[in-house]
Specification:
globular, about 625 residues, about 65% helix
């Protein structure tokens, strides 16, 4: 197909994608958007001062310092241009997604050019139109329903934008690799593409660190580390020995240094349980990508229960067997169907960070933003590129039919996301066993009550009461019930307090539980909560009884100790423990400095002030430091 025709088709597909997503731009912020954007004052940039933009760059929740600065800057730019209107944030996400569609087309076309050149040398070149295949894969991927959360869930811009540099890097690398294959240079381009695009991409999110691995998969299946004459390429081995093997060793050592220690995340499952559960999750991902169901695709997937053994549930061993079979099939087919093998490798490698030992939550759809490319490539290979369907008219008809199905499904999802209440109701309806979905619906009802009055409050109370015993339902349910009852002047049910204690004694407190305890601190401090003051003693005793308390829980306990028990020594101990886990979080250090001042330890407070000065990059903490210095001077 002529290049001009391909670009015309691609432009039409981009326009279709924009129309599909358009209703969803009217929706609101959800979940992590609160901590990343709405409740993150540093992102609310309204000036051109460097310190304000530096504060935004370093404002990733929890004081994380290993990257994501570029992504946080884009949120600040959105606020600077349009305030906190979610429409502008979502429109930016859509623009990034459309750009990624163009970059994916270019990367796929470069991949097929390299594949054709490499296989032609051994006489097995497949006869397909690479440009047409590239535009078909890009078009299907653009409207793939599983990618919706990477577009309309604002904070997941970090995923889509980091993959922008992955796509650029792949396109650049594959073009340079083809030049090297032909003996016309290209070595510098291969080095530059992987170094530059990985380096910039990780400033958005760590997902971009997988770029060299994706390129290595293409090399393994197509180039196989050789030159056009069949001789091994020293440049290729040097590139991957430097950019893949060495970083893998360093990364593994870094991971082992904390993954099982006190700085890991508290989860209700162990590493082995997570690994075998992820087999079931990956099988679900395959289903959601290739044959998605509107009812299965949701924001919340916390109702997926962790596997307790290979046969508990039995689907665990079935999923593991299926994945091993798929991987074995890809290995067997490398020579005959290298594009199929490459697609399967991309799918598995794309989940290397999120589906292995790092104790993240079990499932999120946005984790498939790049892996879905691999699965589309594998399926396209089996059916058309390296499969039995050779007639171009049939290929085009199949692509249109599948694309229409994906587009309609995504449009229906975008309609759900067009209104916060509609989204909350949809999530709760689809996921009746999801504690997050039901709590989100209750919160939406509470927010709606500000406009429509008591009926929504009654519905919220009913929802919270009905679902607070779901597996995984934290103490936020009971805390919300207590807050609603105290705000209305009614007495809180004593069973809600008992339930909080039972939950905190049964499992380690999550970050959400720790934040709910902070709300209870405020409730007792304001004397709205009438329960016996010993309740908080018991609650914190239960929460702190588990090893490896999170920085958020330690901070909450410090505030309780200082301001409700006047125990400044315990508050100082808590904050120092939190700082040991998160040394670059300025909010914890500033809280410690304040506690030290209040308890009369002025020299120690000056030490903490000096520590704040050391992380005051570009003057981002000038306001905080100035306030503490004023306290010291009084």
């Amino acid at each position: 197909m002529k290049p001009a025709m391909c670009w015309m088709i691609l432009v039409a597909l981009l326009g279709t994608t924009a129309l599909v997503y358009w209703p969803g731009l009217a929706g609101g912020f959800v979940y992590d958007d609160t901590s990343f954007i709405v409740g993150n004052d540093a992102v609310h940039v309204a000036t051109r001062h460097v310190r304000d933009w530096a504060a935004a760059a370093f404002s990733f929740p929890g004081g994380v310092r290993q990257g994501r600065w570029l992504g946080m800057l884009t949120f600040a730019a959105n606020h600077y241009l349009g305030g906190l209107d979610p429409y502008g944030f979502k429109l930016t996400n859509l623009a990034i997604h459309l750009l990624n569609g163009v970059l994916l087309f270019l990367a796929m076309r470069a991949l097929f050019d390299f594949e054709h050149a490499a296989r032609r040398e051994i006489g097995t070149a497949a006869g397909f139109d690479g440009s047409l295949a590239a535009v078909a894969i890009a078009g299907l991927w653009l409207v793939l329903p599983i990618n919706l959360t990477a577009v309309l869930y604002v904070s997941q811009r970090l995923e889509s934008l980091s993959n922008t540099f992955v796509f650029i890097g792949l396109w650049w690398y594959l073009r340079a690799r083809l030049t090297h294959w032909r003996g016309e240079g290209g070595a510098l381009g291969m080095w530059a593409s992987l170094l530059a695009c990985t380096g910039i991409g990780v400033l958005v999110k760590e997902s971009a660190v997988l770029l060299p691995l994706y390129a290595a998969c293409a090399e393994l299946t197509l180039g196989r580390g050789r030159n056009r004459d069949g001789a091994p390429s020293r440049v290729i081995f040097l590139v991957y020995g430097t950019l893949l093997v060495l970083p893998a060793i360093v990364g593994s050592l870094w991971l082992v240094s904390w993954i099982f220690g006190p700085t890991t995340y508290a989860r209700p499952f162990g590493t082995w349980q997570r690994l075998i559960t992820e087999a079931r999750v990956l099988v679900e991902y395959v289903h959601w990508i290739i044959a998605p169901s509107l009812d299965a695709l949701t924001l919340d997937h916390d109702d997926i229960r962790a596997s307790r053994g290979l046969f508990d549930p039995p689907s665990t061993i079935v999923a593991i067997s299926a994945l091993f079979s798929l991987a074995a099939l890809a290995v067997v087919q490398i020579k005959r169907r290298p594009l199929f093998a490459l697609g399967i490798l991309w799918f598995f490698c794309g989940h290397l960070l999120t589906a292995t030992v790092i104790p993240l939550l079990l499932a999120f759809e946005h984790r498939n933003y790049f892996p879905s490319v691999g699965l589309l490539l594998a399926c396209t290979s089996l059916v058309a590129l390296e499969g039995p369907l050779k007639r171009s008219s049939m290929q085009i008809a199949l692509a249109i039919a599948l694309g229409s199905f994906y587009a309609i499904t995504t449009r229906l999802r975008a309609d759900e996301w067009s209104d916060p209440m509609r989204l909350a109701f949809s999530e709760a309806s689809k996921r009746p066993q999801s504690a997050l979905a039901q709590y989100g619906f209750a919160v939406a009802l509470i927010e709606d009550a500000h406009a429509n009055g008591q009926p929504s409050i009654d519905a919220a109370i009913l929802t919270l009461e009905r679902y607070r015993h779901l597996p995984g339902a934290g103490i936020a349910y009971e805390q919300a019930l207590i807050a609603l009852s105290t705000d209305s002047g009614q007495g809180a049910d004593p069973d809600w307090y008992r339930s909080i204690l039972d939950k905190l004694r049964a499992a380690p407190a999550s970050v959400q539980d720790a934040k709910a305890l902070q709300q209870l601190n405020a409730c007792f401090a304001s004397r709205k909560c009438k329960q016996d003051g010993s309740f908080l003693d018991q609650a914190y005793a239960a929460a702190m009884s588990f090893p490896h308390a999170s920085p958020v829980l330690l901070y909450s306990h410090s505030q309780y100790a200082a301001f409700l028990r006047n125990d400044y020594l315990q508050a100082e101990k808590d904050l120092r423990a939190a700082i040991a886990l998160s040394p670059f979080d300025p909010s914890t250090r500033s809280a410690l400095a304040t506690i030290l001042i209040d308890s009369g330890q002025r020299p120690a407070a000056r030490v903490e002030l000096e520590q704040l000065n050391r992380i005051n990059y570009f003057g981002q903490l000038d306001g905080t430091i100035g306030a503490i210095r004023t306290q010291l001077d009084k």
